[in-house]
Amino acid sequence: MPTTSRLFVSADLSAGRAVALDEEQANYLLRVLRLGAGSEVRLFNGRHGEWSAVISGVAGRKAEVSPAQQLRVQPPPASPALTLLFAPVKKDETDLIVEKATELGAARVRPVLSQRTQTRTVRLDRLRKIALEAAEQTERLDLPDIADVAGLDAALAALPAGTAVLFCDEAGDEAGAPWGGEAGRAGPMRAVLEGLKGRDAAILTGPEGGFTREERAVLRGRADTHSASLGPRILRAETAAIAAMTLWQATCGDWG
Asked: Which portions of the chain are predicted below pLDDT 50?
């Protein structure tokens, strides 16, 4: 695997056109990695592919790099595209979900407030930084769109037209039974995914405690919305999100 440092920049990329790095990027290259003028790095911006570049100027805490040669062209957006809608949980677990969603190729990621969501605020700047770092490390040529937190109804309404919704429904329908018993449980996710090949999809995962009976009823009655089970064990919220995205990539995404 390439060992040359890889950075996301917002500037346009073309041969010989110097790009000024922000202070954090300059500090990382110059003081953490101890690189200097003439050292090679790789750049991408989500629009112009990936470029080899050299550090062409250093002045105090500032640095600039000059693209030299395009290494990879920018591919078209992934099709089908994956969106992750997830109920935010504790900070570290939410960070993990966003990091792994980026690694697993999600095009869009959005925190969603459901009735049992306990963590009601998120720091978008932090989540976007986590996604950026994950994209740099995983060789992605783009960044996922990290959308602002929204209520469940609003998040579903904002999905692009034609997006199939796959919600992780771990409960049964038996009132009073632990986790709703066995009656009314959703089918296995892998079987549900087989019917969604070639379709843009949004995976929806709930908070600790899962979705309420009222939310499940609304989701099950919503057009083009499919309930699916991740097996006989109750998974942690972050595990469910990662497992569901993994199954989608293996069945419907670019792993095939």
From this structure: 1-2
Tell me which residue of 176, 173, 156 sits closest to 229, measured CA to CA: 173
CA distance 148 to 123: 9
User: How many Cβ atoms from other residues are within 10 Å of residue 21's Cβ?
Assistant: 22
Residue 106 CA to residue 40 CA, distance in Å, equals 29
Mean pLDDT of the chain: 92
Residue-level pLDDT at 239: 96
Q: For residues 107 and 58, state if they share a domain.
A: no
- Ramachandran region of residue 50, left (φ > 0), alpha (ψ -120 to 50) or beta? beta
Per residue in 104-138, pLDDT (tens digit) is 999 999 999 999 998 888 999 999 999 999 999 99
Same domain, 46 and 110: no
Looking at the structure, tell me whether residues 56 and 129 fall in a common domain.
Answer: no
Half-sphere exposure of 41 (CA within 13 A, CB side): 30
Per-residue pLDDT tens over the stretch 210-241: 899 899 999 999 999 999 999 888 899 999 99
Same domain, 15 and 92: no
Q: Classify 6 as helix, strand or coil.
A: strand
Query: For residue 148, what are the CA distances in angstroms to 42, 109, 155, 197?
Result: 30, 9, 10, 28
Q: How many CB atoms lie within 10 A of CB 105?
A: 19
